[in-house]
Amino acid sequence: MNLVEMIALVRRDLHDEDEADYRWTDDELARHIAHALKDFSGYLPCEQQATIATTAGSWEVDISGITGRVMVEAVEYPVGQFPRRYQPFALWGDTLTVLGGEVPDGSNICIYYGGLHTLDASGSTVPSRCEDLIASGACGYAAVEWATYAINRVNAGGVATPREYLDWGKQRLRYFRQELKRLGRQNRVRVRSLYKPYYPIVSRTTDHGP
Fold first, then answer.
1. What are phi and psi of 25, to 5 degrees?
2. What is the DSSP string of 82-126?
């Protein structure tokens, strides 16, 4: 699905398909779609990887070139071994510090990270099963925005119309955020089965003494 198709889907859900009298412009709906897409990326980011050259003798790696980064999931170094060797790491701003026992020697390091999803005229990185969810979030943002704008303004639907849009928009956003949390939990379980956690798991029940 591309952006034009998503706008059409959102219009259908908003019952705003009268081309002679649109309630929202395409640019307004595109902005609400972008808002929902950013929220979605925070819970279910686009899985990507980047190969970066290290600096010999330095534990630090500059990852400022990875744009649209939401989070870093795993760090592989050295690259190309079997089984793969994932290193513990720390992240501060755009500097990733490898915490493993092997100091980088200038060879490549592989960063597995989650990035922002894209949705434009050429296509989308959003899984097809989640397209309706993005539309639901965009509808919620659009309805709440219009209801806020319409307060104390004359409208043909009567004084209850802005409140009805506000309530409907809040319901859509509530559903949208609940689904994001559910998908986020599922994604964490799936990803953790592929990669070792960043840091050792600390027992909350075992007392090792002083």
1. -80, 165
2. SS--B--EEEETTEEEE-SSS---SSEEEEEEEE---EETTEE-S
Contact criterion met (CB below 8 Å) for 24 and 146: yes
Cα 190 → chain centroid: 16
Task: Render 142-171 in DSSP notation, one character per residue.
Answer: HHHHHHHHHTTS--TT-THHHHHHHHHHHH
The identity of residue 191, as a single letter, is V
Pairing status of strand 46-53 against strand 108-115 = antiparallel
CA dist., res. 167 & res. 147, Å (int): 9
Dihedral (Cα; 151, 155, 160, 166), 10-degree rounding: -50
pTM > 0.90: yes or no: no
Domains of the chain, residue spans:
3-43+122-192, 46-115
Q: What is the pLDDT of residue 202?
A: 45
Token digits of residue 208: 């090792």
Per-residue model confidence as pLDDT tens digits over 39-96: 999 999 999 999 999 999 999 999 999 999 999 999 999 998 998 999 999 999 999 9
